[in-house]
User: Fold these one by one.
Assistant:
Number 1:
Amino acid sequence: MSEDLDRKSTPWLTIGLDWEGVAAALGALLVALLLGALWSPLFWIGFAGVILALMAARWSHRTPPELANGIVSPCDGVVVSVERVEAPSELRLTESATLRIRVASAPSTTNKVYTPIAGSLESLILEAGENGVPLATRPDDDGLTRAYLTFESRGQQVGVRLASGGFGPRIELITEAGDIVRLGRPFGTRRLGGWCDIYVPGNTGVLIWPGQTLVGGETVLGRLKSQGDTDLFDGMTAEEQEQAPVLQVETGAETEPEVEEEEDDDYPSPDEVSVPEDPAEIFARLREAARKHGEQD
């Protein structure tokens, strides 16, 4: 944590250079000095090679997000398009209908490429380019250096296709098929920019849009579907749902409901009383009932 805070407070600590690029820059500087000794304007031609070598060697420290089942951008660049297409056969994806996120990287972007998901590298194909094609102006041009990588996590796959110019060692990979990879960790180098196509499952909810600038190893593109996203009875047949255990609540010993006893009163029901015709007898019976009721109280 303290290391991350130091990097944020001092941005220059996040920048690094490959030793190969530094050696190439020193060689270009020597050539520039020799050319300048012959004719001074030639020095600037050689010095342009120094700048190019340093650009190809530049990289930056990245802090991957702590996100379960997350998908991050494999490289720096700008989103060109997000569309549903069929994945290239070189990726060997089990699901051909995928969502493709196309990213364009300028030559000035950092050269590291990062693992899009945490899991394993299932397959890898690297195609060498032609020296006569120094720049990748279009992603499908002939003669480009290309790399096809398929990453897998819990049965779900994400494919990455890298493309760069064919001149020089433009794409170098440090992982092999079968390696376990972590989210947002460098798995290789792509020098002087190019193209990157990320193929994610069709049901992935992406969080980016065309024109957005991405930071390799940090910007979240989406999230793979996890088992927790499905309902409890999702995928179960009707028979299996009927056989599913039902939660029962223990109520203790079974008891019969209590019946409230009716209180006896001294007043007979209307059916049990015969009404005399003589009013005097009626008043005598009422006085007798009132006297008995007073004695009970």
Number 2:
Amino acid sequence: MTIIKNSAPVAVVIGAGDATGGACARRFAREGFTVVATRRNADALQALLKDIESEGGVAHAMACDARQEEAMVDLFKGIERDIGCVEVVVFNIGGNVYFPIIETTAQVYRKVWEMSAFAGFLTGREAAKAMLPRKKGTIIFTGATASLRGASGFSAFASAKFALRALAQSMARELGPQGIHVAHSIIDGAIDTAFIREIFPDKYATKSEGGIIDPEHIAEQYWQIHCQARDCWSHEFDLRPWMETF
């Protein structure tokens, strides 16, 4: 496929899955952004690309393991060189796993940290390199309830999400005064996914009452974060269904 560089701003979604990531890609595409969506397997992005293109949007699917430094460096360099100027980056890789502490192997702990924390660092660093010369851009990291408190059985996930939150805080303090808006979301509730439908059917049954978060509604909030005026930026924001306790 031949890629033609254009003047439209670019929104990069790292971890453009079937829920929040895909919804963010579609939302920014509707606003005229050229979207670059990444997953480890580019074939898994084809349905998303068809959705965006059917609405008249422009999107590119790229296979990339966000845990690999060289791959992330090449990804952002290639986008800036061949596609356009990166204006928005959404880091949306999950890593939510449940293991009692005595069953949490070093491999599991390390992999979850690489996915949810280290990959976030690589994404944020390369995004900053692209945005700083223009002193403009938005970087949004997707967090979770585990960003605030570690639940029983979620030591690996919570540790990684705590680290991602700290990264976002440090980047916001460093990059904000240089024109880069860094935000961190706390998604505190079940998202409308096949995983929730299959594993937690009782919880999913509350969807008709607004008890499950619609990924499109998350994406709308991400768009609004990007649109905030410079004199009134949010850093951390939390999203949850009305019936969710917190």
Number 3:
Amino acid sequence: MKLFRFASGGGPRLGLEDERGARHDLTAASPEAFASVASWLALPDPLGAVRDVRARAHVEAHPLPPDVPLLAPIDGQEVWAAGVTYERSRAARKEESAGGGDFYDRVYEAERPELFFKATPRLVVGPGAPVRIRRDSSWNVPEPELSLVVSAAGRIVGYTAGNDVSSRSIEGDNPLYLPQAKVYDGCCALGPAIVLADEPGLNLRALSIDLAIRRRGEAVFTGKTSTASMRRSPEELVAYLTRELSFPAGVVLMTGTGIVPPDSFTLEPDDLVEITIHGVGTLANPVSPR
């Protein structure tokens, strides 16, 4: 099952897509529990709440059209990210950094992972909305990432696709410029929906991830990886993030990328970035014109 956030005349609401692909209005079925993503993630048992509302057959009484417009599946959550969780990412960041390459070797092998703040909800776009590249950067890339939806209690309750758009030229100049390379208007995309963590048959350590970048309708880059190549487990990353940080509205944690375009490639305005995580969904976003 998938939980999604959608636009309505009365403002954003939550919906549920069932095993048959039918969509229902969760907010109408249970307004208190599903008024927002934040209210859902604050529940003691978010997954149990979804099962409960389905068992009482309230959801089926509130059908939605299949083409309901989807929004980014967050509202009050911060977005954090993990770095250097794939060998390919370690190699790429060593290559781009003139003087700080050994930092990436050390953090890849260390017990403590690299975790950094990525975005507030205001900086995040949903499916179909344009992401942005920095005007003061000459080298920009998408980073396709499995993203974990974590409850206020620190429990992984769902998964979605994420695009951690990044400026390699700025970070490559100096690793201390990481916040500027990562955090800016339109720097992150999430969606299209949240696959619930109790979905049967979903193996987090064996998910195939595909990236396609299209320019004027033609594919200019494609790449593939698998979460089997991640050095750290999702649970390990969440445990470090929540050690000394509380998230009353829940949090989204992006788990790093294993697909890096060649050094000769940079995103251009009007490119289309398509990220497919098999079993989770496809997130497609154009790059905003400057």
